[in-house]
Design brief:
The structure holds two protein chains of two kinds.
Chain A (H helix, E strand, L loop, with lengths): L1 E10 L2 E11 L4 E5 L6 H8 L7 E6 L2 E2 L4 H7 E4 L11 H11 L4 H14 L15 H13 L5 E5 L7 H16 L3 E6 L2 H7 L2 E6 L2 E6 L1 H8 L2 E7 L2 E7 L2 H8 L6 E5 L2 H9 L6
Parallel strand pairs in A: 3-8, 3-9, 6-7, 7-8
Antiparallel strand pairs in A: 1-2, 1-4, 4-5, 9-10, 11-12, 11-13
Helix pairs in contact in A: 3-4, 3-5, 4-5, 5-6, 8-10
Chain B lengths: L1 H38 L11 H31 L4 H6 L4 H29 L8 H24 L3 H18 L11 H9 L1 H13 L6 H25 L1
Helix pairs in contact in B: 1-2, 1-4, 2-4, 2-5, 2-6, 2-8, 4-5, 4-9, 5-8, 5-9, 8-9
The chains are: A alpha/beta, B mainly alpha.
Bound molecules: adenosine-5'-diphosphate and magnesium ion.
Chain lengths: ~280, ~240
């Protein structure tokens, strides 16, 4: 559904995205995971030509984005990282504006507005100015807007950034639900648990490079599925093992507080980069 | 017809806030008319007619400029740098021409409304103005060209602060020097020549001549149309550039 070949973006001397290759299948939820500054937003903006790539190509639904931008625009829906709703309009008017921009006939526009306000649970606030909305409501409206023209691919940049846990859960539910309805989802996140909870496959990005790509299970398999965590003079040590038995054999040799647990994507990231995602 | 969608959004907001707009547009011209027209003007002689007859077309041109420029300038600049709503239009399947035309027409309409306010006020202050179709047409072209200039500035200038500086260093001097309150020929040599080719000078001269019941000033009208076309093309280019 999405294919990226040798995509690259330089800002002066700095390489924001270096030679990216990846393929996203129809119907999956794919997550780009990486710390701030990894190049996730730049990658996504290149898919919509809001940022021009230094080199490389990207295809969405078979169309090359720089050559066939008009076709690509009809196929994708975008939820950008920054809130970019029209604060001077109501929720309904924001959707109406989007529908008009995509040349959707008036009857379909009305139907879609009602459907999506219900889907995102904004019906009772539909005629309030967006400037009075909470962060979670704005996010949900951005999702409703991105889905308005029935895109086959939804691209979301940090869809739950800055939201409280409850608002985040609601966004997750929406993403799962629309994926069940057949929408392919590409999202970026720097929240490990988000990638783990939602994504069939994850691409781990760091400093503009894709350092690992696969299902969460595959990635964990690669570094070892079990972690032995020991405290040694106030310093936490981690060692990863392929099986629980190996981990146990090592753990009994250690003195003091020792825990064995399953590997998380966070451990994968630390193994691959030597840093935490948050650092 | 995509431009109509862009315009539709602007009109929606305008309908919601028109009374605020009207009130804010009343303050400046009332002060100008009082100070320059009615206060100072009593002692100023301009050949034929009163100073008020002379200055009202100038203030109309000035107000067409500032209102239209500020509408698109502030609107598009904020939308690009602060609210990021410009991206919604860039991602949508509409052309750069449609986007610019929608925004510029919105700026033109606001400019026309504020010009109309001054016209009504001027007549209330007993200025004699021949109101003709050409008078409105020229005002409309002036609004259009400054609205297009606003889009260009908004797209090229990368901070709100520099937008304000542009207003102070470019728009404000034009407001005073371009034949609005006095004849630009009175300026010293080279300055008069430079000011003479600026769009606001053509706008105030054309409006003044029409207000006095004169013939259509073809050169000025053509110059205004030329500026409008050039600024419109430039603003389309600035939008295409960032795609
Ligand atoms: N417009 C820009 N000009 C210069 N550098 C930029 C620009 N946009 C992003 N960058 C740089 O590119 C790198 C990747 O940024 P970004 O794609 O926003 O990362 P992420 O979304 O993963 O946090 C960062 O080092 C950032 O500073
Ligand atoms: Mg980002």
């Amino acid at each position: 559904m999405i294919e990226i070949r040798g995509l690259k973006k330089n800002y002066g001397q700095r390489q924001a995205v270096a030679d990216l290759d990846m393929k996203i299948e129809e119907g999956e939820v794919f997550g780009l995971l990486g710390p701030n500054g990894a190049g996730k937003t730049t990658t996504i903006r290149m898919l919509t030509m809001l940022t021009r790539p230094t080199s490389g190509e990207a295809f969405i639904a078979g169309y090359e984005v720089s050559r066939d931008l008009d076709r690509v625009k009809q196929v994708i829906g975008i939820v950008p990282q920054h809130m970019n709703l029209d604060l001077e309009l109501t929720a309904r008017e924001n959707l109406e504006l989007h529908g008009r921009l995509y040349k959707i006939p008036v009857a379909e526009r009305c139907r879609r507005t009602a459907e999506l306000l219900a889907f995102t649970e904004l019906v009772d606030r539909a005629d309030d100015l967006v400037s009075t909305f909470s962060g979670g409501m704005k996010r949900r409206l951005m999702i409703a807007r991105a889905l308005f023209h029935r895109p086959r691919v939804l691209i979301m940049d940090e869809p739950t950034i800055g939201l409280d846990p409850q608002a985040r859960r609601r966004i997750w539910d929406l993403i799962r639900q629309m994926n069940r309805d057949g929408v392919t989802v590409l999202l970026t996140t720097h929240y490990i648990e988000e990638a783990e909870a939602l994504c069939r496959r994850v691409g781990v990005m760091d400093q503009g490079r894709m350092i690992a790509l696969g299902t969460p299970a595959e990635l964990k398999e690669r570094v070892g599925r079990f972690v032995v965590e020991s405290l040694n003079g106030g310093q936490a040590n981690y060692t990863l093992y392929g099986t629980r038995e190996e981990a146990l054999r090592h753990a009994v040799k250690l003195a003091g507080g020792v825990t064995i647990r399953e590997t998380s994507l966070e451990d994968v990231f630390i193994q691959l980069t030597g840093r935490r995602v948050g650092d | 017809m995509d431009f109509y969608t862009v315009l539709w959004r602007e009109m929606l907001v305008f309908k919601r806030t028109w009374w605020k707009f009207l009130a804010s547009r009343l303050v400046n011209p009332v002060l100008y008319l009082t100070a320059f027209g009615w206060g100072l003007g009593q002692d100023i002689h301009t050949g034929s007619g009163t100073y008020l007859d002379f200055v009202v077309p100038g203030i109309i041109a000035l107000s067409a400029m500032t209102t239209s420029f500020n509408t698109t300038g502030t609107g598009v600049n904020m939308s690009r740098l602060y609210y990021k709503t410009l991206e919604e239009y860039l991602i949508a399947p509409i052309s750069a021409v449609s986007f610019v035309l929608g925004k510029v027409l919105a700026g033109t309409l606001r400019g026309l409304v504020s010009s109309l306010i001054i016209l009504v006020l001027g007549i209330f202050f007993e200025a004699r103005i021949a109101v003709t179709g050409w008078f409105f047409a020229v005002t409309g072209i002036a609004c259009f060209l400054f609205a297009a200039l606003g889009v260009v500035a908004a797209m090229l200038i990368n901070s709100h602060e520099d937008m304000a500086n542009f207003s102070t260093f470019v728009i404000l001097p034009m407001a005073f020097l371009c034949g609005t309150f006095f004849r630009a020929e009175r300026l010293p040599g080279i300055v008069a020549d430079v000011v003479g080719i600026l769009p606001l000078t053509h706008a105030s001269y054309a409006l003044r001549s029409l207000a006095a019941g004169g013939v259509v000033p073809a050169v000025s009208v053509l110059a205004l149309v030329g500026y409008a076309a050039a600024f419109f093309a430039a603003s389309v280019w600035t939008i295409r550039r960032i795609r």
